[in-house]
Amino acid sequence: xxxxxxxxxxxxxxxxxxxxxxxxxxxxxxxxxxxxxxxxxxxxxxxxxxxxxxxxxxxxxxxxxxxxxxxxxxxxxxxxxxxxxxxxxxxxxxxxxxxxxxxxxxxxxxxxxxxxxxxxxxxxxxxxxxxxxxxxxxxxxxxxxxxxxxxxxxxxxxxxxxxxxxxxxxxxxxxxxxxxxxxxxxxxxxxxxxxxxxxxxxxxxxxxxxxxxxxxxxxxxxxxxxxxxxxxxxxxxxxxxxxxxxxxxxxxxxxxxxxxxxxxxxxxxxxxxxxxxxxxxxxxxxxxxxxxxxxxxxxxxxxxxxxxxxxxxxxxxxxxxxxxxxxxxxxxxxxxxxxxxxxxxxxxxx
Length: 350
Ligand code: RAM
Hints:
350 residues; alpha/beta; Rossmann fold; 4-stranded parallel β-sheet; 10 helices; 15 strands; 19% strand; elongated; binds alpha-L-rhamnopyranose; Peripla_BP_I; Rhamnose ABC transporter substrate-binding protein
């Protein structure tokens, strides 16, 4: 079992705050913050919270954990991050069991499977642990709230717009995804398939393959190579995972396909900067994972304190991000995806 607890340095905290300024923050940013008072309204008091990402060693989740830890500090809550090396549901179960045994107040989890974790999560909830999914949801019945980075429709539409633009609206494309069970990637892929079939703007684009790199760098790199070998007419790749797009960019940038096969999807600016600078990638998208972790922690605190029960229409304070409302099926929406390109990438550091 891997345990990781990190304290951000003052500089890291400052950089993180700077990243909060960009699009998709949601909330009304009412200005009074409200989250910095431990134990007050919206405060976390003695709350103990465990964050369980899909896996450790992924820069995306390092940033979401930094955001969660910032919120926990503001709330005066005890915070830890735990997680497996591989993004698999089996590997997450033991951590959920431990949270239940330890009697933690809240678990914040990016789920590696919509169903397979539900028994363990049920046990934890019976032990009075509030369970908030973020990034990748379980079935809605399993958890109290899901903190969604952006709508699936919005994320799908953005990636299709980017690839269509980059391949001149026609040709073969492929998808390099994360794991085959990932609820978030699967719902984005489903939306993209639907949009490709229904939208006349995409009539000349053909999705020829979808492959899975399991959010493992080497596997994603190898899958990129295989895609290019198996589809000699490939014009573009969409990788809706920060691990996949970075590995694919690394492969392409050293290959004869650089500049010929377009690559877009969801990436972090720090991992993609080199490939935007060297012309392998022109534009990609994401939201702010730091904001996502921050919002999830405030949502967990609101549940633990009994300020909300997770019903549609409940609203809660999320510190610097302002106030948020719970929507249908217990979903709280962070904002919209944001596009990064050579003109703006230097403004971001995560
Ligand atoms: C990877 C993970 C995560 C996803 C991002 C875009 O880091 O698969 O779940 O939201 O990519």
